[in-house]
Design a protein that fits this description.
Blueprint lengths: L37 E3 L3 E2 L31 E2 L22 E12 L6 E4 L16 E10 L6 E9 L4 E7 L2 E2 L6 E2 L6 E8 L26 E10 L2 E8 L11 E10 L2 E11 L5
Parallel strand pairs: 2-3
Antiparallel strand pairs: 1-5, 4-14, 5-8, 6-7, 7-15, 8-11, 9-10, 11-13, 12-13, 14-15
Length: 285
């Protein structure tokens, strides 16, 4: 994997990353609740995640991670759970192993269109997260993709898996994808709209700047119905950015609803913090 000026790195691996939100079974043991955290967007969430991170959110919909939803004007609360209510997934990078489990899970932003009001979630992490030789910030470990055509609504998913902790992030539709630092446009042909996610307080490169930390990722031309492609937009000064190509030209892609899950889990013996971005595929069903 080539070193990129200004510490921009992309996933160099061509192997199809299949990463997942695992269903937690009754035998799973949730971690002790950490300090709470804050986010703004379409949901307000209760604390989960790393013991050193906190997040809060404000928005317009209410749904718990157990699947029950309650209406509340302007504010929603999603309760963390480790007991089997996440939708089935297909983006694991390898077959599950003994000891794999979901520690906690929650919806941070329920189905909505992050256009005029972007999704924003903040996590407070110590810097550095750990002393050297560990990386000082949450590091992007892998990217996974999966289709879920039989769910209600059907959706496509791109999941970002981090080591260390959950980063903060902003998600919104943008007219074009611009590279961090240079501001130059990044082509994303054949898409109806572009959804940008910017992870703050994160990195996708080693501390010496010589290698990417991303071990697996799918090809950028994904070719799903709602999620057609994705492209890196930067790994610069603690911000890791990606653009997601949504739908195809001439469709209702700009009105595509988005949902965001956070899952803390043990997968393949590794402690991971997963931010899963789900795109409503109803328009292309």
């Amino acid at each position: 994997m080539a070193v990129i000026r200004n510490r921009r790195f992309t996933a160099g691996t061509a192997g199809l990353g299949m990463a997942v939100l695992l269903l937690a079974t009754a035998g799973c043991t949730p971690s002790p609740p950490p300090p709470s955290a804050t986010a703004t967007g379409s949901a307000t969430t209760a604390p989960t995640g790393s013991g050193s991170a906190t997040a809060t959110a404000t928005g317009s919909a209410t749904e718990s991670a157990t699947g029950s939803a309650s209406a509340s004007p302007g504010t929603t609360t999603a309760s963390p759970t480790g007991t089997g209510t996440l939708p089935p997934d297909s983006d694991e990078t390898a077959a599950p192993q003994n000891g794999d489990r979901v520690i906690s899970s929650k919806i941070t932003h329920d189905w909505a269109v992050p256009s005029t009001t972007p999704f924003t979630t903040k996590h407070q992490n110590p810097v550095p997260l750990a002393p050297p030789p560990a990386e000082p910030l949450p590091t992007l470990y892998s990217i996974g993709a999966g289709q879920h055509p039989t769910d209600t609504p059907p959706y496509d998913q791109l999941s970002f898996r981090f080591n260390g902790a959950f980063p903060s992030y902003d998600i919104s539709f943008v007219p074009e994808l611009l590279a961090d630092g240079s501001g130059l446009p990044i082509p994303m042909p054949g898409t109806g709209a572009i959804l940008k996610v910017a992870f703050h307080g994160a990195q996708a490169h080693t501390s010496d700047g010589k290698a990417s930390t991303i071990k697996t990722s799918p090809p950028q031309a994904i070719g799903y119905r709602a999620l057609t492609s994705y492209a890196p937009a930067g790994d610069f000064e603690g911000v890791v950015s990606y653009g997601l190509g949504v739908g195809r030209p001439g469709t209702a892609a700009p009105q595509t609803k988005v949902r965001v899950y956070e899952v803390e889990k043990i997968e393949q013996g590794r402690h991971l913090y997963v931010v899963a971005i789900q795109l409503d595929a109803s328009s292309w069903k």
